[in-house]
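Please decode residue identities from the backbone states below.
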């Protein structure tokens, strides 16, 4: 059950980082365009990794329930 909470927190954090970077870029598009692009790409990778953790944990719990049932 802890894997779900950790993955959910990671997804929320990555989403916040992405949104903050997008807001900074919208406010001043040419201030640090390269840095903000890297930040959004990093946040996207973190989001995908946390979604993969969530899916794996779901599969593991499903397998456990199948074994116990």
């Amino acid at each position: 059950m802890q894997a779900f909470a950790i993955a959910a927190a990671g997804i929320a954090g990555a989403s916040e980082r992405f949104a903050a970077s997008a807001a900074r870029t919208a406010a001043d598009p040419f201030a640090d365009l390269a840095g903000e692009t890297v930040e959004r790409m990093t946040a996207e990778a973190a989001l995908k990794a946390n979604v993969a953790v969530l899916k794996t944990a779901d599969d593991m719990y499903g397998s456990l329930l199948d074994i116990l049932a």
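Observation: The chain is about 90% helix and 0% strand.
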